[in-house]
Amino acid sequence: MMTDTPPQDDFDPHVEETFDSPHVEYRRMRAECPVAHSSAHGGFWALTRYDDIGAAVTDNDRFITSKINVIPNMSLGKRRPPLGKDPPEHTPFRRALDRTLRHSRITSMEPALRAHAARELERMIAAGEGDISSDFATIYPAWVEVEWLNLDPSNAPLLAEVARLYNIAWRNENLDAVAQTSAKLYDVATGVVEDRKRNPRPVESDPASALLAEETPDGPIPDAYIIDTIRQVLVVGLMAPPPLFGAICVHLVRHPDLQDELRANPDRIPAAVEEFLRLYSPYRGFARTTTCDVEMHGRVIPKDDPVTMVYASANRDERVFDDPDTFRFDRENIRQHLAFGRGAHQCAGAGLVRLEMRIFLEELLSRTRGLELAGELEMTRLPELGPTSTPLRFIPA
Prior knowledge:
Blueprint: H1 21-32, E1 35-38, E2 44-47, H2 50-57, E3 63-64, H3 91-99, H4 103-127, E4 129-131, H5 132-149, H6 155-171, H7 175-198, H8 207-213, E5 215-216, E6 219-220, H9 223-239, H10 241-254, H11 256-264, H12 269-279, E7 287-290, E8 294-296, E9 299-301, E10 306-309, H13 311-314, H14 350-366, E11 368-373, E12 378-379, E13 387-389, E14 391-396
Parallel strand pairs: 2-10
Antiparallel strand pairs: 1-2, 3-7, 4-14, 5-6, 7-10, 8-9, 11-14, 12-13
Helix pairs in contact: 3-8, 4-5, 4-14, 5-6, 5-9, 5-10, 6-7, 6-9, 7-9, 8-9, 12-14
């Protein structure tokens, strides 16, 4: 039975973090309070165990995304599809995006993405030092977005700069700055949708054209929702790489033997990609809202309370992954990681992200014979996890 007593605070989402400390805290939470509560950001719950998260994100009746999908909630009152809609309303948006992310389309993008990665890495390696998170991992994902969305190349530097400013604004919970940078992404999204209305492209290779051609039970998707969708995929594609790529490089610096192994055996890089995704999931977790009281592990999450799914904790759950803090090539269950979520809102771009990461590692390792940290790491905050600044020193091959 519910009581009127406010739930206790089980963790502090604002505590200063190091590279390793979040995973130590998540280990404690999995053991002591797998259903944890914080009064921060108006109060929210966090699920930390793999099985609980997997069950919640596939339960579209009790855990919905149409109220809030990330904590802190700075969506400025907009519920952007597809994350901002629940099945079946989100299905037409997802169907259109999935059409442009099939294996054949992703494979066709590899030469262009490799050229972008090589050029940007060569620039940094020639300089001797550079910040992999705030430099390469902002401009390279911008080029990925340009190629996937068929944008004019002049958009890449703009997207990279907007991503950098958006990340800073979000970390500082500066709503005005979030709105300003979001508006620039809306300008890009609006421009591409207006162009595709005049000049439609094949729906198999152009997201905006696919969304414009998609039918719902009520007719075509309204233009405003299509613009919202393009803006959302821009944010997701630009925000995750800086902490992910930074964390991967920190791991490689700490384990030069792994660098050597991957240089000598590049065919092992795809397996490394999966283990890096498990170890360094860049999102602590997307959020859901309960539609009824939900009891888990002796605690009751009240109806209408926000709940974040801590994928980064689930991916190191010792109940699922043996020796979870250790990098291993031979995990039989590696594809069970939740770096891309699960269920109706599982990341549509998982295949593209895997290609993006594989190219990054292949090009970085083939052009260097060593990596070193060249300064202090700066860590990000909710909802991302990992370094937002990763200064490196490159030892050329």
